[in-house]
Design goal:
Helix content is 55%, strand content 6%. The protein is mainly alpha-helical. It folds into two domains: 195 residues, Fumarase/aspartase (N-terminal domain) (Fumarase C, Chain B, domain 1); 280 residues, Fumarase/aspartase (Central domain) (Fumarase C, Chain A, domain 2, Up-down Bundle), CATH 1.20.200.10. The strands form four sheets. A three-stranded antiparallel beta sheet has the order 4-6-7. Strands 1-2 form a two-stranded parallel ribbon. Strands 3-5 form a two-stranded antiparallel ribbon. The protein contains 19 helices and nine strands.
Length: 513
């Protein structure tokens, strides 16, 4: 399959296919016409010697400095080279691929004044698997992602280093291997390439995609813990959630009902207890609030991936070039800060359920720390420490980056979004949350096995949905009889969560939303 871009209809799913599955990309025919019209208008303005920001002037504080027609090409090249100020570890390749695709889609709208051949060269890079090395740090989120997008543009002009076939090599070598000719930038093209929100959006989109999967896995983990701790399913009665009305809460309650339907461990009502603690009883409310937040972020991302975010913007039909502020990352900064908080809460409540399983005062009769031979064995004691550590670490990352701003460009750019920091810290929160929920899954499977060993029928009394999850886990790892090297065990569950394959196993039995 090939993803066709025209700046208007790109989907999140298509971005994921391109950035993770290396699907090919091409420009739609209608977009080519729009791109060519926009470029022709720019050429006309240059011939007229019109004063236009970024075409015949410098940038930022230098906007009042006139640039001669002879210097325009050098101006664009200098812009890219001087702005490659990113530092630190390189972004993962899927983030760079997503940013390249989003940039090309943005430019395909026909409001950027860039040549069709320049966009096509970036698509050729993407299709050939040539990925510029883009260090993570250095963007304040206005004028968008100047530094990281400049690093991508640097590769486009055949400079800097790129990742190609698993190796990091000079861009010119990769171009030569693929028969691609580096771009000689023309007027307006440097600005078109490095003004915009595509790096933060690429990172945040990938985090969002995995967060959507994590919602289902968190539900599976919660249901398995409910089996282990003999939860009361009545708390998930649809009548309870309908009268509050929040969509996410209603969906979460339905997921938990479906996962636990038929369980003989987690009954509709128990004779010996009236209610469960909040981490189990209020899971629809807690998970549901995160679901609603994540769905909100999805709507923002769906808009942004088809938005024009460079500057100045070309409106050829109206004979206007407007210097605006679509590059400002504030809409994404707020969304990605919200996203990381929503993800963090899934981990917070997961760790609390984990604590109840390992704590003999709260575990409904399970052995302390989920080990048969406590004392000589520590079982899951320190696994809970690890989860607590990551939950607390997330509280640092959760500080909203968008509430900060620092002036740049001699105070010309006096409010910035910090949206790229929002997206980057969301990725850190996601990784911690995946690990914490993986620990809960591991502990819940151990607790269910212990119920069976204790003669309480933990495994044999599972609901079909949770049994599918338990069987999937047991195909990959066995119950822990004696202490083992726990990092190996927990790493298995981290991979289980990140692959998302447990969802497929469960959905063969019950459908999750």
């Amino acid at each position: 399959m090939t993803v066709k871009i025209n700046g208007k209809q790109l989907t999140i799913e298509e971005v994921i296919r391109v950035c993770r599955e290396n699907e090919k990309v091409e420009i739609a025919e209608d977009a080519k016409d729009a791109i060519n019209r926009s470029r022709a208008y720019v050429e006309k303005k240059l011939e007229e010697k019109a004063v236009v920001y970024g075409l015949t002037t410098g940038f930022g504080k230098f906007a009042n400095v006139a640039i001669s027609q002879e210097e325009t090409a050098q101006l664009q090249k200098n812009l890219i080279m001087s702005h490659t100020c990113s530092m630190g570890d390189p972004y993962p390749r899927e983030y760079v691929r997503a940013a390249m695709l989003l940039r090309c889609n943005n430019l395909s709208c026909g409001h950027s004044g860039i040549r069709l051949s320049t966009i096509q060269t970036m698509i050729d890079m993407l299709n050939a698997g040539i990925h510029p090395i883009v260090p993570e740090k250095g963007s304040v989120g206005s004028s968008g992602d100047l530094a990281p997008l400049s690093c991508i543009a640097l590769g486009l002009i055949g400079k800097g280093m790129v990742e190609y076939k698993g190796n990091v090599i000079p861009a010119e070598e990769a171009f030569k291997a693929e028969g691609i000719v580096p771009v000689e930038l023309a007027a307006k093209e440097g600005l078109a390439l490095n003004n915009g929100t595509q790096m933060m959006t690429a990172v945040g989109l990938n985090v969002l995609w995995d967060a959507i999967k994590l919602l289902k896995i968190a539900d599976i983990a919660c249901a398995m813990t409910g089996e282990a701790l003999k939860a009361i399913r009545k708390a998930y009665d649809p009548k309870v959630h309908a009268i509050r009305g929040h969509e996410g809460q209603i969906v979460e309650a339905e997921n938990l009902r479906n996962l636990l339907e038929g369980s003989e461990n987690a009954l509709w009502l128990h004779d010996n207890k009236v209610q469960d603690p909040y981490s189990q009883r209020c899971a629809p409310q807690i998970h549901g609030a995160s679901r609603d937040a994540i769905n909100y972020v999805r709507t923002v991302v769906e808009k942004e991936i088809n938005a024009v975010t460079d500057n100045p913007l070309v409106f050829a039909e109206e004979d206007e070039v407007i210097s605006g502020g679509n590059f400002h990352g504030q809409p994404m900064a707020l969304a990605f800060d919200f996203l990381k908080i929503a993800i963090s809460e899934l981990a917070n409540v997961s760790e609390r359920r984990l604590e109840r399983m390992v704590n003999p005062a709260c575990s409904e009769g399970l052995p302390a720390f989920l080990t048969k031979h406590g004392g000589v064995n520590s079982g899951y004691m320190i696994a809970q420490y690890a989860a607590a550590s990551m939950v607390s670490e997330n509280k640092v990352y959760d500080h909203p980056a968008c509430v900060d701003s620092i002036p740049t460009s001699a105070n010309q750019e006096d409010h910035v979004s910090m949206g790229t920091t929002s997206a980057r810290t969301a990725a850190l929160v996601l990784d911690d949350a995946q690990k914490v929920i993986g620990i809960e899954l591991s502990a819940a499977a151990q607790a269910i096995w212990l119920r069976e060993e204790m003669g309480e029928g933990g495994i044999s009394k599972l609901a079909p949905g949770t049994k599918a999850a338990y069987d999937f886990i047991r195909e990959r790892t066995q119950p822990i009889e004696e202490d083992i090297i726990m990092l190996d065990e927990l790493d298995k569950f981290d991979k289980i969560v990140k692959s998302g394959e447990i969802i497929d196993a469960v959905e063969k039995v019950v459908k999750l939303k």
